[in-house]
Write a structure and sequence with these properties.
The protein has about 475 residues and is an alpha/beta fold. The chain has helices spanning about 10-50, 60-65, 80-90, 95-100, 120-135, 155-165, 180-185, 250-260, 295-300, 345-350, 370-380, 410-420, 440-450; strands at about 110-115, 140-150, 170-175, 195-200, 225, 245, 250, 265-270, 270-275, 290, 315-320, 335-340, 360-365, 390-395, 425-430, 455-460.
Length: about 475
Amino acid sequence: MSPSIRPRLTNQELRARERVLDAEIARARAYLDQVLSEREMVQNDLDAIIYPVLTLPVEVTSQIFCWTLAKTGRIAFPHNLSLLGQSLHLGQICRLWRQIALSIPQLWNHMDFSLNVHSNNRQTSSVFLILTCLSRAASSPLSLFLHVHIGDIKGAEPILDAFAPYSKTWENIGFCTSLNSLRALSGIYKQLPRLKSLKLGLRDPNTPKTPITLFEEAPLLQTVHLIQLHSQTVTLPWSQLTVLHVELLTAEELLGVLGLTPNLVSLVIGFLYDAINLWNLPPHPHLQSIVFTKTRLDAYLILPCLTFPRLRDLKLALSDHDNIAQLSTHALDRLSIYVTDCDGAWFMQYLATMPPSLRTAKIDLSCGHAVILRLLLSHLTDDPTFLPGLESLAIPVLRQNQEHAPVTARVLSNMLRTRRALGLRNFELVSFVSLPDTRLDTQITKLVADGMHIRVETQAEPYSDFGCPEF
């Protein structure tokens, strides 16, 4: 109450009020002491708890930390410091974990930087962070990807200069920058004894007058991913490469690269463009896997130019507009096809060209392909020469027209019973359109009891139609 309006008390009333306040203060202090005492007991109980994770030997905790990192061996275009962030988070849990994290070089040798250097302050902080990670990585093999959003070589030089002295420890490396920026790494020539995987992407499409020779001598290099780069742009130890991923090239440039790589085992082809002048290349005797990651007619035009006597794994997307010749191989074992906008009869004709060595097939049907599914099951039932060696078949129906029931239990039962006699052991059909409950079918139940794996499942939600195969 404001002193100006508070009623005036007598001396006796003031002393009585003082005694009341003193009693309330005493009670409050007693309650506070009780709460503080209880809190201290709780804290003592917490301190007495021994967390099992903190009793692990440092070596075990270190190994667990290393397992938490996404070390896939592939270097993707970065959008953030995701790999580095995992290492930083481990050091924020407690003091012990921070000490362990800082002492493990393997936590700091996987760096994924996407830098936009437009100011000296940003450039300085980026270089400091890179140098800090490199010092913690010590001499352990480095896996790093650097995506620099600058066109000026002067802006990239300090960052590249920070990485260059460690080139003898580079194992999996990727650079997405300009040609001039890569030339700033001239000091790494013949200094790549550990390099196994290389990814190069250019932001400037101009072909240099002289090719980049920085990676010409790398005795362990076998995996290369080229984006907008071809044999006239970069000199590599082509003959020792076993895995090649190319994209944003012309088909003619791709054939030029393939002419230099006779020992390829795996080939991944991304977006190709421009027409092609066909010519035949020598056989690739070691090539066992080809993956087309985009739906594009020009990409498939290279197939008639090549011979793959040992090709075992093929993954591609098909549409009505694709004209793919019969493969020159008799060893194909696995086939994955993403079908989009494709005529059913044409697609059956294409499958009929597959060699009898085919054992495993996955056929992703995009929107509106109930007709193709029925044709496929019909051919599998009625024609024993159609994919005769098939042992495993998976059919995800990504988007199906609701008005067309894709299959009935009787159709499935007849197909499975026929194909079981020909060697089919695994069958999966997954769709978001209602499918029959095959557990109620006597024939299918007998096949399952006989050891055949059968999965017919209706998804609650439709698959997303990504427009390209998820390889």
